[in-house]
Predict the structure.
Amino acid sequence: MSDHQGIPSALVKELIKRRHELNLSQIEVDLRMDSRPSQCGKWESGIRNPQLNSLISWCAVLNTELKLVPMRGADGEETEGQGQPHRTEPC
């Protein structure tokens, strides 16, 4: 499986696991999402990353949802800004 740049691989693995639990093929997911053939396969293999609206639809087809939860440190306390993207180019 590819690096899944842009989408955490743990999330993709959970979506694959959920698809298997529901006994759905990648083609069935594509059909239910009304997306192009092999789209689900491209996302699962890391060839392509879905847009946010597609990711939400993908989750809906799998009868699951995305949730935003605060990031926590080892001490259980909410972290401050450590999950924020950083710039690699000069401002």
Remarks:
- The radius of gyration is 16 Å.
